[in-house]
Design brief:
239 residues; alpha+beta; elongated
């Protein structure tokens, strides 16, 4: 009767080592796939968030409202304030909306602020003043109405008037920059609201177009300079 031969201890140890090596390689492969899926999902979320923010930007401009003795749009070097119609119903009232850039948690963010629905001129004036304060030095109460849109390195605003793109503050100061990183002009505490002093852009007619230049930081799904032009509806053409 033939004698049966089993595995030696060395053979068993070699087999176990090979199995451990194959398991480690399989785990690293699976871990790499999971990491790639997470990065792809994050990039998709970043792109969707940016698209949503730009869509909201266009919707705010499309819904610009005009009121007597009230600016519809104003750029003070730090924040762009808009007076817009409500989007839920015809009787919703007006809203004051503001866009700005500020450090949040150590990184520069593009932010949007919106007031509750406004029913009276006094409420509108208070919201207009609050939006200006939010763009300059927001309080905790002001921040309750803000939403982070996307990380942002820099942004610039231009108005289309008289057949050309111009700096919104150029009529007041030809050297004034039109980007959000610039120092905003000083605002009188009692004149920041409706009926008080406003920038030259607010005092003039509503622009025929608004150009937005966003410089998105590296490392994002979309980086570099992005340009978005808006034309006032009913002009019969685009700037």
């Amino acid at each position: 009767m033939a004698k049966q031969r089993g595995f030696t201890l060395i053979e068993l140890l070699v087999a176990l080592a090979l199995m451990a090596l194959m398991s480690a390689m399989s785990w690293r492969g699976l871990d790499g796939m999971v990491g790639a899926q997470k990065r792809l999902a994050q990039h998709s979320d970043d792109v969707l968030t940016l698209q949503t923010g730009l869509a909201q930007w266009g919707a705010d401009l499309d819904a610009l409202a005009q009121q007597p003795n009230t600016p519809s749009i104003d750029w003070d070097g730090r924040a762009l304030r808009l007076l817009r119609r409500g989007s839920q119903s015809a009787g919703e009232g007006l809203h004051v909306v503001a866009w700005s850039q500020r450090l949040v948690g150590g990184s520069a963010q593009w932010l949007r602020w919106q007031s509750p629905a406004l029913a009276t001129h006094a409420e509108l004036q208070a919201a207009w003043t609050q939006a200006a304060r939010w763009g300059q030095n927001p309080s905790d109460d002001d921040r309750r109405f803000e939403v982070r849109v996307t990380p942002l390195e820099r942004w610039q605003i231009f108005f289309y008037r008289g057949g050309a793109w111009t700096n919104p503050l150029s009529s007041a100061d030809g050297s004034a920059p039109a980007d959000g990183a610039a120092q905003a002009p000083a605002m009188a505490a009692s004149g920041a609201g409706l009926g008080g002093p406003t920038s030259s852009a607010a005092a003039g007619a509503m622009p025929d177009g608004v150009r937005l230049l966003l410089t998105l930081p590296p490392g994002q799904a979309v980086s570099g300079v992005l340009t978005r032009d808006w034309a006032r509806p009913g002009l019969g053409g685009t700037p």
